[in-house]
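Researcher: Good morning. I'm working through a list of sequences from a screen, and I'd like to move beyond sequence-only analysis. For each chain I'm collecting a predicted structure so we can compare shapes side by side. This is the next one on the list. No need for commentary yet; just the structure.
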Amino acid sequence: MEKIKGQLESYKEQPFSLVLRFLMWIATFLTVGITVCIVGYILIRGIPTFHRRCLPGNIIQRIYP
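Model: Good morning. Structure tokens for this chain:
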């Protein structure tokens, strides 16, 4: 609890530090959110078009029938 109290006193002396910390958290959440959306989009669009014949084991069977 004393650590939080010390940080609050520090922010009273340097309020811009609080603003920068807040902006950093916003950037972090945006980065994670965009990454999750991109991975989700790739999985949603990619898995239905993925064919079993594309697996590495089946490539050998296609080369040497």
